[in-house]
Amino acid sequence: MGNVHALGYLGLGVRDLGAWEHYATDILGMQAEHTDSDGTPTLLLRMDERRYRLALTAGEDELTYVGWEVAGPDELDAVVRTLDAAGVAHKEDAALAELRGVRRLVSCTDPAGVTLEFHYGATAPKLPFVSPTGATFVTTTPDGRDLGLGHVVVTCADPDTAIAFYRDVLGFKISDYIVPIPGLVLTFLHVNPRHHSLAVAPNRPGADTKTEINHFMIEVADVDTVGRALDKVHAQKIQKLATLGRHTNDKMLSFYMHSPSGFGVEYGTQGLLIDDDNWSVVTYDAAAYWGHEFDQD
């Protein structure tokens, strides 16, 4: 495994911070904190001991950066060496590290154009996280190993090149593949026991060739939390992307819904943990054992 050990945070540009605050607190069960990012209104969303896992800044509805966490200074230095060896331009930025609330931060751009921020030393406030809906989020294993935020799925024009970068330069490992129809390959990669922290897929045929976020996933500790969130989605007439179902590869019991920005959010529980000592890569011919049907309710 490489030096990256968790998906630390995501940065999202959003057009409607007010809608996101309601959605994140009342539906997802996160705590919200208003701040600013170099004078731009920002909403920090907390789901565990970290100050935030999602940073939403006023702007266009898009993925703006992905924060990949490393264990400490030695591991960050090792990431820098691997980027140097691969000829990947990068920058260490003390001012940006302070803005993000981490000790050190090195940024680069992946082959798909996504801004990556490698960091360690994220802020953990004294006051505990208290979910407004009673949700408990799964960001560590039962024995305390870091699992991070959840996962993010991106679509891009050249997934093979992007995947090679994550594997060969950053040390991510392939979890498995899903090929729901001939020619469409979804690739899942992990950096810790969580089944995947990143998945990469090709752009839809005929769609814009720019890289986009398809969805991010957050995991909760029990099925009742998923069910209560789903009830609220129905009651508030939030558009679902897919019905409740169980995935073939990571065994997650989840449903998908539109966020206020349009891209998806997967809300689930019972995700699979990987043991690399006995893991074998396989290819699934379907994304779900049951459910996860496309839904426009």
Question: What report would you give on this structure?
Answer:
The chain has helices spanning 17-28, 73-85, 94-100, 159-169, 223-235; strands at residues 4-14, 31-37, 40-46, 54-58, 62-70, 90-92, 104-109, 115-120, 151-156, 173-181, 184-190, 198-202, 212-219, 240-247, 253-258, 264-269, 283-284, 288-291. The protein is α+β, with helices and mostly antiparallel strands. A ten-stranded mixed beta sheet has the order 17-10-11-12-9-13-16-15-14-18. A hairpin with a 5-residue loop joins strand 14 and strand 15 (253-258). The longest helix has 13 residues, at 73-85.
**N to C succession of SSEs:** EHEEEEHEHEEEHEEEEHEEEEE
Average pLDDT taken over every residue: 96
Largest sheet: 10 strands, mixed
Helix/strand/pairing category = alpha+beta
Record the strand order, biggest sheet.
17-10-11-12-9-13-16-15-14-18
Total helical elements: 5
Rg, Cα atoms, Å:
18 Å
- The shape is globular
Number of strands: 18
Distance between termini? 41 Å
Query: Approximately what portion of the residues adopt beta-strand conformation?
Result: 35-45%
What fraction, in percent, of the residue positions are helical?
10-25%
Low-confidence stretches: none
